[in-house]
Specification:
Layout (H helix, E strand, L loop, with lengths): L10 H38 L12 E2 L2 E2 L2 H11 L1 H4 L17 H5 L2 H10 L25 H19 L10
Helix pairs in contact: 2-6, 5-6
Length: about 170
Amino acid sequence: MNTESPPSPNPGRSSFKALWLPIIAASVLVLFLSLALLWFVSTAKRQTATLASDPPEIPERINGHLVDIEIGQALYMQSCASCHGKSGEGMAMQGSPLIRSHFLTQNSDSQVVRFLQRGRNANDPATLMQRAMPARGGNPNLTDQDLADITAYLRAMQLNARNQPDIAGSNP
């Protein structure tokens, strides 16, 4: 009885697969990891980017509402700090940093109030963290006056942060 296996029709083909299959798999893995790293770095840069210009001044009125920064601070602590941090530094997997936010810098007070009124879906391409921002910060009792006060407080936080050294010890 013959125990030898029949000769392979393409003896070089099996050695080709054995040689190149791990190389192709490793290349695909490196490509995937590179793309993931690129996405992570670009997201981190957007989230931690410093202000490109000075934040807008603290307004006296927004949409006709006379604003009160102290009331804005109290409302921020009640409705916003749980996601965005007590100092606007942001919270991992919760809310974006606000003290150095390009969004706040690049939008007018009226636009910020409108954003707070409407919120944003998690799948909105403009969101940094792919998290929803609920309308009125999830507090339907916040009035437009309250949102104007919070916006004024956000402006004050940004101006204060502008005058504070960043983590590296230099002004942003």
